[in-house]
Amino acid sequence: MATIFPPRDAAHSAAGVPRLSRTGIMSTLLAFWAVLIGASVVQDAMAALGLLGDRVWMLDVEVETGIYTWFSTLLLAGAALVCGVVALEKQAAGDRLRFHWALLAVIFLSLSADEACSVHEALSGRLTAGLGTSGLLHFAWVIPAMFACAAGLVLFIPFIQSFPPRLRTWLLVSAAAFLTGAIGMEMAAGAIGAGSEEVLRSGAYRLLANLEEALEGGAVILFIAVILADRAARPEAIRLRFV
To answer: What would the pLDDT profile of 156-209 be if each residue is shown by its tens digit?
Structure first.
């Protein structure tokens, strides 16, 4: 169960107990992200140069059963966990932004489930067929996604303003990078005709696919770093302890 206590009591109660290093956590996430993205890029480059025989599909960032998809699923779930813990702390403190944190936890958990189950791809196919979209809007799921993002920006203005200037800038950078990868790269793929098998094997599409995953993953890691840095900088914050 969870109990709540102020920081000084937490430090006293945790004396002698090993603590995870924030720098260590972020360095590990960045290392995994860089190695997996790098492996996919190198493999695509070797294939383009004719230096690769059989592709190692587990290293492909787009394959549902690939290592990167597993990593991305866990990364998004981790972001959900961080937001959920902060939401509980805000709830205990009676903070007005507790609902924003809780909503973020739900959003990241939903994104994690989508990464594992490819929900938006299935829905997008039906939406594209129904609307008859093409070109930039070939993947029609981006249409409701853009409206949702616009509404989210308005809703989260108080949340964004609650961060100190430096962290607020990095928070916005992480959001912009994630949306550029998730929506921007998807629209670019549609524009080059990603619906055809020939295009899906092309160097241009492979570049967009790697950029999309790199931007999304890097953005989530940056988001987690911002949240952990903000939390560490608030000594007055109420903390949770699980017993």
So the answer is: 999 999 999 999 999 999 999 999 999 999 999 888 876 666 777 788 888 999
Collapsing DSSP states into helix, strand and coil, what is residue 18? coil
| Rounded distance between C-alpha atoms, residue 135 and residue 170, angstroms | 32
Alpha carbons 60 and 77: distance in angstroms, whole number: 21
* Helix, strand, or coil (residue 5): strand
Q: Is 237 helix (H, G, I), strand (E, B) or coil?
A: coil
User: What is the rounded CA–CA span in Å between residue 92 and residue 242?
Assistant: 14
| 73/81 Cα distance (integer angstroms) | 12
Q: Is residue 229 packed enough to be buried (19+ CB in 10 Å), middle (13-18) or exposed (0-12)?
A: middle
Query: How many angstroms separate the CA atoms of 91 and 87, rounded?
Result: 6
**Helix, coil or strand: residue 243:** coil
**Both tokens assigned to 38:** 């790098």
Give CA–CA dist 124/109, Å, rounded: 20
Check residue 242 and report its DSSP letter.
E
| Whole-number Å distance between alpha carbons of 167 and 174 | 10
Distance CA 97, CA 53 (A): 53
| Residue linked to tokens 């997008």 | 124
| One-letter amino acid for residue 194 of the chain | A
Alpha carbon separation from 76 to 67, 79, 81, 88, 108 (Å, rounded): 14, 5, 9, 18, 6
Predicted pLDDT at 138: 87
Tokens encoding 123: 């829905």
